[in-house]
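hey so i finally got around to running the thing on that chain from the lab meeting. sorry it took forever, my laptop kept dying and i had to restart like 3 times. anyway pasting the input first so we r on the same page abt which one it is
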Amino acid sequence: MSHRICTGLPRCRLGKLIEELADAWLAQQEGRLHDRRGHDRLRAAGAGPDHELVFTHRVIATLVILRFQLPHAALAVFYGVDRSTITRAVHEIRPLLAARGFAVRGSPDLRLRTLADVFAYAAAEGVELRLDGTEVQVRRPRANRPGRRAFVSGKKKQNTKKPTVISDSKGRLLWTGAIRPGRMHGVTALRTEGIEDLLRRYPEVKAKVDSGYQGLARDFPDQVTAPPLKPKKDAPPDDITAWEQARKAQSSERICVEHAITEPKQWRPLQRYIRRREYFDETMLAIAGLVSDRCAER
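ok and heres what got predicted. didnt touch it at all, straight out
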């Protein structure tokens, strides 16, 4: 099960990941036990029954589920444990993966976790950002529930959730976040995440976006570049030709963020998420963080 086809990671990177998560998992377990006991340990760590599924297998099982969206019962058969053991392992490891943040090239100790981190990194390193949004189909809320229409995307006509993706000019994934229900526009999601304040705080940061972010480019013309507006139908042929050339040139410079969006979608849950919607954000961040590790090595 530790093969890269199953986990999506080569064994050398898998070993580093297990080592990285071990201390955080132990602290998580100690905190849970302390809350249950209500006091400090009376016996040394290691007393009591052993885990049915050791920590290494918990990480591998979680990665396999993130990779292929397999039923938990199927993994339970492979490991010879109950289905609830696999479910408990996923709920322990997935938040740790989601909290890791995003790797950057040349700085192995630096991880970007928030939009503010991305802007601070771009300002310090002179990185020009590429922004775009994507959509992942999710389960439809039950009938007669409040907010049922909030997930209906006007573009896809499906129930979706919308993450925003940021990459550099080489297509390396720097951040994924501002995850909102599909009904919300991508610009609105970024505005609620505080991108306007960050653009004012870091006036040297530049970004390229697609036509869906025209409003952001209008408000910050010196920092955000969007495709030119389409000429009117009765415009002269020279104007239309100039517009097409400018649009293609801007699209060629922005296409790398589309590649950054495509890489995480090689993982099955981000093609169509069939589990509970409240776990989508964690799943998205966990997968994107793992993909960023590979991007940082390019």
